[in-house]
Amino acid sequence: MNDGHATALMEGILLVDKPQGRTSFSLIRSLRKLTGIRKIGHAGTLDPFATGVMVMLIGRGYTRLSDKLLLQNKEYLGEVSLGVSTDTYDCDGTVVARSKKIPSLEQIEKALEYFQGEIEQIPPMYSAKKVNGKKLYELARKGEEIERAPAIVKVETTLLSSEYPHLLIKIACSKGTYIRSIAHELGQRLGCGAHLSQLKRTYSGQFSIEECLDGNLLDDPAFDITPHLIAHENYLST
Asked: 155-174: string of b/e by CB count within 10 Å (b at 16+)?
């Protein structure tokens, strides 16, 4: 356990590129071991298959920033795989449908026009969103599906490349947007089905992927995070 002075030096905002296959909470566990600090949070989770910007908040003063940072916009690069639908809308799910239909580039561009500006989005059953006090994914794992109220989100979607069956899209979006739901609905609009096969968060608020350190470094007990911490006053001054 660190002494009080050392602990204070290890408090702050830490920008981490979450490795693929790791849970968001595993980064918290690693940071607790490195710092001896129990009060650690983040400004937005990522699914295990996803990578990219995780804004880690270390220390009581910084975890209080969580609600404020969660409200900020985010940006993602996503790979959408056409012709295969899964129950979770992503690559970690079970395949529920396949299609041999190959949409044209013109059809894809037309379908993507929907995902611009304010849109309604229904939270997927495989999500941590709570309805009547129960997380949706817990119900989904029991084979249950319940009605979910749509939410209004704001998105700006750009097609970067198209090489069947893969589309690479960039999405800038507001809080609470489910990128895998966009992939799923895009597949429905194209009539071929689709799922999100890769996802990287490139921005979380003002923080970019270029500023992040490799999350695997947190597993090294000798790794010093202090040079990478962003101080509270520096953040507030931006």
From this structure: bebeeeebeeeebebebbbb
Range of the domain at 105: 74-204
pLDDT tens digit sequence for 185-233: 999 999 999 999 999 999 999 999 999 999 999 999 999 999 999 986 5
Q: What is the DSSP letter of 145?
A: -
pTM: 0.90
Q: Is 219 a catalytic residue?
A: no
* DSSP letter assigned to residue 132: T
Asked if the bond preceding 124 is cis, omega within 30° of 0, the reply is no
Judgement on whether residues 93 and 109 belong to the same structural domain of the protein: yes
Sign of torsion over alpha carbons 4, 6, 11, 12: positive
To which residue do tokens 């999500």 refer?
127
CA atoms within 13 A on the CB side of 37: 25
Among residues 17, 47, 92, 214, the one annotated as catalytic is 47
- The CATH number that applies at residue 130 is 3.30.2350.10
